[in-house]
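User: My collaborator sent over this chain with a note saying "see what the structure looks like." That's all I know about it. Can you take a look?
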Amino acid sequence: MESAWPALALSLKVACWATAITGLLGVGLGYALARGRFVGRDLLDTLLTLPMVLPPTVVGYYLLVLLGRKGVVGQWLADTWGVNLIFTWQGAVVAASVVALPLIVKPARAAFEAVDAQLEDAARVLGLPAMAVFFRVTLPLAWRGILAGILLGFARSLGEFGATLMVAGSIPGRTQTLSVAVYEAVQAGDDGLANTLVLVISAVCVAVLLLANRLAPGHQVHRRGQA
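Assistant: Without extra context I'll predict from the sequence alone. Here is the result:
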């Protein structure tokens, strides 16, 4: 069990950072897709959905090409800031963020679309600026669906494997997340460690998913119907 703690700690660290990043991006993109009417909206929605359907290793390869020293972003980061994301825990955060983003954008968009636009119009008629309408009317009405999506994104970030392995590798204590540690334990024939790691990550993900299900708007409607 002692050997599982570093991987678990790193996985939680990566998942928390990825969730913070994708939470902000996902809510903004979800609102833009729900309320915006702009050219390329369907294309943007399609691109944001791609990480859900592409194999994780393909997503990881795209990130490797983009963030590598010869990539457009990677070369700029290295030349301008001296930053290298490949084979670092920060690279694992980027990989987890890209894979988890659609799981936050989709619920956020659905939650915003479920908000009655007439309530927002009424707030504007009363003189509230656009920012105040969002934070005082739209967001309070959509927060349950948004939070459920954020929890799903956290669970996905915690269990990310393919893209993380491609971008961050498997350096024990530095980039070896829990899911990567499971793979390494199986490859090494250490069934005891693999079983322990699987139980830990399964327990955490089950707890997160149970909480996400309880926060989902449909769950509340179903409970009121039973009452």
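A starting point for your reply to your collaborator: The longest helix spans residues 4-35.
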